Amino acid sequence: MSIFGAMTTAIAGLSSQSTAFSNVGDNIANTQTVGYKSVDTIFEDYITVSNASVNESGSVVARPSYNNSVQGSITTSANPLNMAISGAGFFPVSARNGTVNGAPTFDGTQHYTRAGDFKLDNNGYMVNSSGNYLTGWPVDGNGQVDQTRLTPLQVGQSGYAPVATSTATISANLPASPSSNVPNYTTELPVVDAQGTSRNLELTWTQPTAGSNSWNLNITQQQTGATVATAAVTFGPNGTLSSVTPSLGTPPPNSTTGQPALLGFQADFGLGPQKIQLNLGNFGGTDGVTQFAGTNYNLVSSSQNGVRPGSFSSVSIQQNGNVQVNYDNGSSRVLAQVPVVTFASPDSLKRLDGQAFSATNESGTARVNQTGANGAGSLVVSSVESSNVDIASEFTKLIVAQRAYSANTKMVTTADDLLQQTIDMKR
User: Fold this and answer.
1) What is the pLDDT of residues 330-349, one digit of tens each?
2) Biggest CA-to-CA distance, the chain
3) Domain-located, residue 8
4) Which residues contact 326 (CB under 8 A, 6 or more apart)?
């Protein structure tokens, strides 16, 4: 019985070492596969009878040991849509299962991957080299992230619609000691009309009495010369804004210290009335229009919220996971946010084709996090994670598996010789 047992044990050893050899071969073949996670081999002993008096030959079984949580090296990429995760977690992805009217459909099962070599396909979806579609949190028109659902990320290449100017801000210093008897200063304030055309408003400051703390502000449309707002603006002894009293336009809702001095008016660029609020700064503050020492008018800055129409330029990923669409007018919009998914036991995930995984009972449920939150790794943009295979270690395992396989074949041939000798005893 012991000779037969030794032979069957050796055969089990051959099978186990074949499995180890196969795992090593799989690892070596994928040393250049983006996001690949290596597989080690562990051996488990099976006992038949083992006590103080008898120990009979048992068996051995090879089982895989997955290294899904082991980080691969991160390398820089020229593609701005490539991403790598530094730390724990996976990208959520979906698999395509068909096409309807030229658009892809998805099977609804959430998968996960570390292969972040994404690029845009012909439909604007972000797809990695294995054909997995990146999913993320959508962002609405108000910039709010919807963290209640994951959806395949599609980047539209439509243009940026114009936004008419509704608010403007100016910061300037009017001289407390002007060089002329009747100071008069004019500055241009660019705005955008409802069709996205650039227009100019002219702001003219005049001082009825040289050296006083009172100025008259007159706002006109440069193209037509029409006056749209006039106001008396006064400053306190410390040179900060004290009051704004319009004779044409809407007065500020509150003139107390610390409140914004908002002068409202309506412009008309041939497209109907366009309401604009000009922010002159806070009352009692130094962030807007002031009257400090000097002999010349000094425009510090001006801004407005209007946007000219723009065409799609590019798409980029921010370190916080925001998918940002950029336009040639200098504007940008956040389309979605890429989360990082973590598991209690990532090494227990089920492996799928294309360096993808699916959740199992052993791995635990998926926890969808913002990058860097709740133990999730951080994003490294314009980079990819390489395979975590250590080629030197794999060759060492290869030599060990080869020697162990040879030793088991020796056990089989030796047991065969012993059995043959036993049979020959009959002769």
Assistant:
1) 889 999 999 999 999 999 99
2) 138
3) yes
4) 313, 314, 315, 316, 332
